[in-house]
Amino acid sequence: MENFRREEIGADKIVNRKRCVSMKLERNPPPDRGCLVGIIFFILGLGTLLPWNFFMTASQYFERRLNGTEVHNGTGRVQKEYLFNSWMTLLSQLPLLLFTLLNSMLYQWISERVRIAGSLVLILLLFIFTAALVKVQMGEDRFFSVTMATIWFINSFGAVLQGSCFGLVGKLPPKYNSIFMSGQGLAGTFAALAMLLAIASEADFESAALGYFITPCVGTLVTLLSYLMLPRLEFARFFLNGISSEETETRDELLQDNSKMNGHANGSLTAASKTEAELDCRSDATTQAALPQQAVQAKASVLEVFKKIWVMAFCVTFVFSVTLSVFPAVTVDVRTTFPGKWELYFASVCCFLTFNIGDWLGRTATSMFRWPRKESRLFPALVVSRVAFVPLLMLCNVQPRHYLPAFFTHDAAFIIIMILFSLSSGYLVCLSMSYGPQMVDPKDAETAGALMTFFLALGLSIGASLSFLLRALV
């Protein structure tokens, strides 16, 4: 008797659950007035990659502060090499790998609001500390250690921020994911333009560096305020607090049930039934907890999902391994063959600005056309072919060099290689990240997205590790 009553209660809960979902599905989403939600997610995308791009683009500032140390090598005194760009790349990407894994556990214990807002506040404080450090005189070894520690912590919080934002934007329609990634693509351009303005200001070294590092402080503060504004927008509330992934799984079933019910005179919900469903929607968490496990379709295991997306996981790992192995550790040391004032702007324009604009254009191109298809064998072949950029960039006018000849010495050759290098990177990365979740059932899309993010971080870390070897071989 007691079992029968439990089954009856469970059946009532399922019926009420279906009514709740049905009412949500029948509601049309409110308009995104002024595209404010789109603008906010563009700013969030920009804010997630500000730490990495501002430290990377400021390599000239850091190298200038680290150029004063000399050491004995047995034959005399030589300038100490800190390999700043390689260490900066490695200590930026290792936290991304570690904290991407950590974030998959944090979301169960720490709310999304605390993770995003808390990370932005801590990143803002670290940027303020970096700006203040411009005016602090200290030894090169100590400055190097403090800077590396700052890079580690600021990118750790950035990894939590990025993973949380990817989960947040995944609740919205797909076009907002493209908007978010476009913001990420422009973060590097924003940093490169800030560096160009600092150089063009012709201020003294310290003032220019201080103005440069104040810029990400303002950018991070704007990102934080934009995120706090998100819950106030009706369009955002509809999706962020609306239909869950479990509810969307019953969409087809509900539509079939509704079509059958509409064929009968007594099939529509009565006023009492609607009231009951509305009350049940308000206690959505309680209802979900009461649902029997068999009412929710089981998700595939991580291994099963990986077997379906391993090709795309390999592709995103390989693309970033190639990209980070030479950019910026090798490319930032390419020198112009035209002496004069152009030397001050060469790295900012031809290395950072060219790469980031090309990367952004490559990502944006995927919204207009997608070739090759995800099933095509040509896609991984194109990804692997990018390894040709490694020797091409190493044979440019990288200085100082010890082993390889400089074959592409003209500025135009380096710019053309960088354009093709950046366009292919942005295009293939964006395709890989979007194809991955499409290769599994909708119920497993979230798991696929998390796996793809992990392999993205893995590719960045592998590339950063390879940069030490490749720079030493030049």
The string of secondary-structure elements, in order, is HHHHEEHHHHHHHHHHHHHHHH
Helicity range: over 70%
Please give the order of strands in the largest beta sheet. 1-2
What percent of residues are in strands? under 5%
Low-confidence stretches: 1-11, 17-26, 243-295
* Count of alpha/pi helices: 20
Shape verdict: globular
CATH superfamily of the largest domain: MFS general substrate transporter like domains
Second CATH tier, the architecture of the largest domain: Up-down Bundle
Helix/strand structural class: mainly alpha
- Give the distance, in angstroms, between the N- and C-terminal Cα atoms: 80 Å
CATH class of the largest domain: Mainly Alpha
The number of strands is 2
**Major sheet characteristics:** 2 strands, antiparallel
Structure summarized in a few sentences:
Belongs to the SLC29A/ENT transporter (TC 2.A.57) family. With 474 residues, the protein is an all-alpha fold. Helices cover 73% and strands 1% of the residues.
Structure, explained:
The structure is a single chain. With 474 residues, this protein is mainly alpha-helical. The chain has 3 domains: 2-28 and 243-295, no CATH class; 31-242, MFS general substrate transporter like domains (Growth Hormone, Chain: A); 299-474, Growth Hormone, Chain: A, CATH 1.20.1250. The protein has 20 helices and 2 strands. It has helices spanning 2-26, 36-48, 50-57, 59-65, 84-109, 112-133, 140-169, 174-200, 205-229, 234-240, 245-249, 251-262, 271-282, 284-290, 302-326, 342-365, 378-385, 389-394, 411-438, 445-473; strands spanning 70-72, 77-79. Strands 1-2 form a two-stranded antiparallel ribbon. Strand 1 and strand 2 (77-79) form a beta hairpin. Helix 5 (84-109) runs antiparallel to helix 20 (445-473). The longest helix has 30 residues, at 140-169. The N and C termini lie far apart (80 Å).
